[in-house]
Each structure stands twice: as C-alpha cells, then as structure tokens.
Amino acid sequence: MADERYAFVVVSNRLPVDRVVADDGSASWTQSPGGLVTALEPVMRQIEGAWVGWIGQPGDDLKPFTHNGLRIVPVALSEGEIESYYEGFSNDTIWPLYHDVIVPATYHRDWWDAYVEVNQRFADNAASVADTGATVWVQDYQLQLVPRMLRLARPDLVIGFFNHIPFPAYGLYSQLPWRTQIIEGLLGADVLGFQRVSDAGNFSRAARRLLGYTTRSPYVDVPATEGLPARRVVARAFPISIDVTAFEELAHSPAVQARAKEIREELGNPKTVMLGVDRLDYTKGIGHRLKAFSELLAEGRLNVVDVTLVQVASPSRERVETYKHLRDEIELTVGRINGDFGTIGHQAVNYLHHGFPREEMAALYLASDVMLVTALRDGMNLVAKEYVAARHDEDGVLVLSEFAGAADELKTSLRINPHDIDGLKDAIMQAVDMQRAERRKRMRSLRKRVRENDVGHWSRSFLRALSDANGGIDRYGFDPDPLGDLEWTVERPPSTSP
Ligand code: F6P
Q1: Ligand 1 neighbours by CB, cut-off 6 Å
Q2: Distance from residue 349's CA to the centre of ligand 1 (Å)
Q3: Does residue 378 surpass a pLDDT of 80?
Q4: d(CA 84, CA 87)
Q5: Is 471 exposed, middle or buried (CB count within 10 Å of its CB: 0-12, 13-18, 19+)?
Q6: pLDDT of residue 443
Q7: What is the pLDDT of residue 489?
Q8: DSSP for 234-275?
Q9: What pLDDT is recorded for position 42?
Q10: Which of 55, 137, 406, 459 would bridge with 384, disulfide CB 3.0–4.6 Å?
Q11: Which stretches of 299-381 are DSSP H helices?
C-alpha cells in the first residue's frame, strides 16, 4: 500500500498505460485502448491526483509510480482473476447485458464471487491513497460495487461514479441474478453519471423497482442503512467527449495533412474513401456495415475503382469466445468481399487489425470522405467526435447510428438504424453523392456541437455536480471547478488504438 495521500483519486479497471513484457523479460508501457482513457487522461493532467487501476496483465503488486507525469497506483490481478472478473463477469456478463444482449450474457456464480473480491481490492487501494475528505471518481461497469465499498470504509469521502457504457432497460437488466447488489453498490456514490438521459432513467427505474426507493429525476433517495445516514443520490446524464482543441491542433499540423494526402495516394486516389474505426467488438456493427457495402458493390451502385472502405479494427478482449468468433466472421467477410469485387490495383476493403498512433488516426480522418459509425449499441462513440474535431476543413460526412450515445448531440449527421440494411445503403449513397455545400453546412453544425461539449466541459460539469451534492462547499480543500478556464493544450502520448 502507498504512503502518499491524494485529494483527488480516479479508479478505473484500466490504467492509461498497459505493461508489456517482452520475451527477454524486459518490460515497457504502451497506451491502453478505449474511450475511457482518451477522455480521462486530459482531466488527470489538469488535476493533481492518483490513478488507481490494473496494469493490463497478470502480476504481483507493483509499487506506485509516475508515468509521463501521471501518478499511477497499480492494482494486481492474478491470471485466474483476469479470467473470472475481467474476461468473465465484466466482459461476458455485464458487457453483453448492458449492450442489450446483442450476444447472450453468461451468468456464472464463481465469476460473480471474483467480481466482488476484485472490486473490494480496488476499493481498498483507493481508500489507502485517498486523503481525508478526498474526492474519488470511480469509472465504469467493471467497478460497480466500489462506490458502496468505499462509502462503508470511508464515509468521509466524496464519491462519484461514471458509467461509460449504456445502462439497459429494466426488462433486460432484471435478468441479472445479482441485480440488487449492483444497484446497491452504485448507490454508494454521491453522483452517478450516465452517457444518455435514457441510461439514467433506466438506472432510476431499476432502483425503484428493486429497492422500492423514491426517485424523482435526477434524485434517488437512499434511506439510512448499515450505520450510514439517509442520503440523496444524483443520477443523471453527463455525455462524455474528447479533447477537441488537442485533436484540432493535431489535424492542423502540416505533417498530419501531408500524411492524409499520402494515404489517399496509397489507396490509389479513389473518388471516395470511406472509413470505419472500432475496437473489434460485436457492439460496433462492423458486419452490418460490410453487408451494406458489399450489397452496394454487387448492385453496381458503388464501383471498386471509385470507392474504397478502410476498416481499422483494433484487437480487443481476444481470449473471450464471442470476440474470437467475431474476428473469424469479420475476416472471412472481408476476404469474401475483396475476392468478389477487388481488381488488381483496387481493393474493396482495406482491413487493418491493429491500433494506430493519434497522428495516423487524425490523418485517416482527414483523408476520408465518409465516416461510418454503425454501432448496434454504444455508450457514446468518441470516434464520431474525433472525426468531427479533425475536420477543420468543414468537409466529410458522418454516418452515425442512432444507437450510439453521440447521436443525441450530433444531429446533423446522417443518422441510421444499422439493422435496416436498405436504409444504411441509402444513407451511404447519400453521403457519397452529397454536394459540397451541404457537407459544409452539416459539418459546421456538428463541429459547433462538439466544441461546446468537449471533455473539459464533461469533467467540469460532473465534478461541479459532485461538489453541489456535498453542499457546494469546499469542505475538503477541493476546488469545485478545478479545471478553471485552462485551455486544453496538453501534449499527449500516442494512442495505439481507438
Ligand atoms: O469504455 C468502455 C471500455 O470498456 C472501458 O471501460 C475500457 O477500458 C475500454 O472500453 C476498452 O476495453 P478493455 O479495457 O476491456 O480493453
């Protein structure tokens, strides 16, 4: 356990960096995947605090250390815990259940036991580095029991929780054998943040149905229990975002602009470049996108000489069975499409199964005429926001699933239902054929929206709500608006995947 104490602590399953051990036993750190890290890293660079989380592989306790200016407090997980807590309960029970059971959720009692045990370890680590009266901000579905565990151990703390993924409707949520414990775990927080208004509503309904608590949006009234006084918990939407200024700056850099040109040349200068960027996850609707694209090629509405699709699919959760199947399925489909429609010199789909540095991502966004976000269910989808932030030239068309949280804000995108393949095909054609004036009009309005709600706005509003929920008083020496008006001009290490 660490000796240092912090007034601000973030707790997430993943740290911003993963430890990678080479064959010769030497260890190094790489940027870890996912939107959570993308959003939180700039926040942590503005507020001095500690980041408690897992190093991405099995191992013994490491001592707290500083990486790239961030204070890291590692939590150790054994190989068995990675299988049962991370791959099992987090990613084979909660993940599919919270994404509307796109694939069936698996319920195992020993996975649940591991989830409880590992959540307790995260709570203990956070409690050990949190100063008296500190603010602890717990992140995401892997750690839903931590707020209550922390409150019982440390009633002096101010506790926030943000759920980065959807929260399902009660009809689905009620399948979970441990549904009551999870709601009780979450209600240990003072403020619960969700991506969409509907997610917050689903949570409040579950609290009412399962525990009989009184709810009046945005409040859930929790009666006195286990020696803790009665409390009023706030549960509402705080749509997450990206570091817009940093991304714009990146996209403005001459090197990135030159690279964007080069990418188009390398692709054979087609009339239209379409792009998909996703973790290789069944929630992202990559198969639906490929189906629509291949039908358009088969019908001759698109021609492989004119149009190419670049699909970045970064590796994810590769030992979980459903992810293995998905990879096989997607790669088979890509192979078929290329076999059926490719010519020498013109590939229909450029499939890239790896992550890229942020500079390359920005160049890809600039090089692409049409961005396809066809998620079947997605908490937010920060890739959609990155595409918009990168397009300072006010060009490019965003095709966006209405099932991604980003659709609530990005209303001038071409919004689609990815299950409706004909509708998706028509939207793709509309994007390909759209005139410059309309592209500019739509992109301008998208950019305005993304600028208004950047990641600084997200974290400031959440932390302000947390302070307000505690009387709005700076009782812990913690500035309720710790980010002030600081500009987001933070230098960031390259990311390796979306
Ligand atoms: O944002 C959702 C999320 O599951 C994060 O919690 C997570 O860090 C990221 O996606 C990537 O997933 P994983 O950590 O399982 O690789």
Answers
A1: 13-14, 33-36, 140, 164-165, 316-317
A2: 26
A3: yes
A4: 6
A5: exposed
A6: 98
A7: 25
A8: EEEE------HHHHHHHHHSHHHHHHHHHHHHHTT--SEEEE
A9: 83
A10: 406
A11: 321-341, 358-367
